[in-house]
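Journal club side-thread
Mid-discussion, someone asked how the predicted structure for our own chain would compare to the paper's figures. Pasting it here so we can look after the session.
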Amino acid sequence: MKFAGTELGEYPLFLAPMEDVTDPSFRYICKEFGADVLFTEFISSDGLIRDAKKSLAKLEIFPYEMPIGIQIYGHLKEPLIEAARMAEAANPAFIDINFGCPVNKIANRGAGSGMMRYPEKLIDITASVVKAVNLPVTVKTRLGWDENSKIIVELSEQLQDVGIAAITIHGRTRAQLYKGEADWTLIGEVKKNPRIKIPVIGNGDITSPHGAKEAFDKYGVDGVMIGRATYGRPWIFREVKHYLTTGELLPEPTVNERADIARRHLLKSVEVKGERVGVLEMRRHLSSYFKALPDFKEYRMKLVTENDYREVINIINRVEEVYGSC
């Protein structure tokens, strides 16, 4: 599969954009483990054009991350066009428009998956963004607003017609949020639609190598996007790739291996964001690397309260000493 000018091979894996998760340090680790395509956290078009510090910081990308897309969202055409041009200036491989976020504060004002209620507006905005930039434009969306408005098959055709380069489909409606099981049947219908010529990337509930294989084999998607399953487990990309190419399952990483990943992730976070912010924003990740270890509460509390990254490394070292045989 060729995506944004890069040949990705037979089974490309995409890291889903996740707010407060897929920052540069986490993307760095996921890339090491085999993520083929990365996305920034999603960025508010309003925040970009107001020069909001947090939004502008999310534009920072690095050459080793390629191909990486900058994902933007909003509910108004002109701010999205301007945001797309600002994103283009950061030199990503492509620009992605988020029409999939189901969070109330986003969707209820017509952005993210809220745009699914207004398909004509969604198409008009997308067409305008495609015309405004020279980079490939992709879209991430859902099946529809609710059970009674699953419009994704016809919407995909319309999006292709206005010039998007690829589409990622999450197998839930906005009304489902992240509840229930993702429905891949409509994703498969989009891919099998003879009118669809652009790559179709499937997303939703891919938590194992078996699930990824089924997505490729049963539904025929061109790529698989993995989101929440990467949290505390970025090595899932390595596991999936190994299984898809050999049919064999890799053993779970040892505590020693997880400790090494945690240290490298922390040091990258400090390098990119500085000591204070780098440590604070790692707290959401650190204890997740050591899920299911017995009697871990004491170490977990230390990992999420210590402010000095050197001491955090000492705590990780101690975890490795105590649990290294697990």
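Post-session note: The longest helix spans residues 255-273.
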